[in-house]
Amino acid sequence: MIFEDDPAGDWTAPGVYRCAPGVHRIPLPLPNDGLRAVNVYALADGDGLTLIDAGWALSRAREVLDAALGQLGAGFGDVRRFLVTHAHRDHYTQAVALRREFGTPVAVGRGEQPSLEALNRPPTGPAHRDRLRRAGAQEVIRQLEALGERSFDPADWGLPDEWIEDGAEIVVDADARDRRVLRAVATPGHTRGHVVFADEAGELLFAGDHVLPRITPSLGLEPKPPASPLAEFLASLELVRNRPDAVLLPAHGPTGMSVHQRVDELIAHHAKRLDATLAAVEAGRSTAYEVAEVLPWTRRDTPLAELDLFNAMLATLETGAHLEVLAERGLVTAREQNGIVHYTS
């Protein structure tokens, strides 16, 4: 059964949801309590489908996607291509797994190339260890090392068949009278190669993790992050804000919000966060980890000490990104001592 998408409903509930003519949302499960699900969008494409994002390569996610495609009268062999917004595990790896079986082409933004190439080499230690060390987060590093190396298979991160260039026009259902044209827009920040897909005629934005309706995305969580992920993210938000408004079709959360409205909220959030970060430095906190300890986290204002290890790592890295922007703006001064970056106002 195909449902009409209801922004007020449970966006994580398995099913197939029509959110625009020729566009269906398919939420796939994730193995954690935080995000809970990722939205895959199935676009009618002749006698097949184009999928935007693909989900995490998990047996349960595959089963749910298989059943959903069946509701659309299709199967994995009918997927013409995967257009992936960015190379995070919950968006990319199932596309790679299905390509091995069905030969389906996979495309991702050009900016993801450095990180994907790094992921195709053996890991050399806990992910993001060097950045955490510079942040003064020795306790986080200690806990990560105590966990040992997570199982890692480079085959999960096979390189794509196509690198999507900024501004590329991708035609879907080319033979139809009302063919759909998607414009790829590079939106670095969440990752350096993140892209969104704008259906300008349909006034839709397939936003991936760049614009999320209920949470703020992590910044620079990748093997090869840029020098200033937050600066890139804020510039990408302004870029999207200067485009025509559209209906938000996010990777996590309900559909239907105004893109402009949510972008304004995200910009305001980070402005407030920059103020709080600066106040912590002025109060004597000098490292990213020390600042993160006095800031509230999540929508519940949870202290850093009460976050699980993964989210404590995210919080520390995000704080570092805010401090980098403050330094770029001349509001704080950064100096490195014994491999740790200290900030003063």
TrEMBL record:
* Pfam families named among the record's database cross-references: Lactamase_B
UniProt KW keywords: Hydrolase
Which superkingdom, per the lineage?
Bacteria
Q: Which InterPro entries does the UniProt entry name for this protein? A: Metallo-B-lactamas, RibonucZ/Hydroxyglut_hydro, Sec-metab_biosynth-thioest, WH-like_DNA-bd_sf
**Gene Ontology terms for molecular function:** hydrolase activity
Give all residue intervals belonging to the Metallo-beta-lactamase domain. Answer: 37-252
- In its UniProt entry, what is this protein called? Glyoxylase-like metal-dependent hydrolase (Beta-lactamase superfamily II)
Q: What species is given as this protein's source?
A: Pseudonocardia kunmingensis
Tell me the classification of the organism that encodes this protein. Bacteria, Bacillati, Actinomycetota, Actinomycetes, Pseudonocardiales
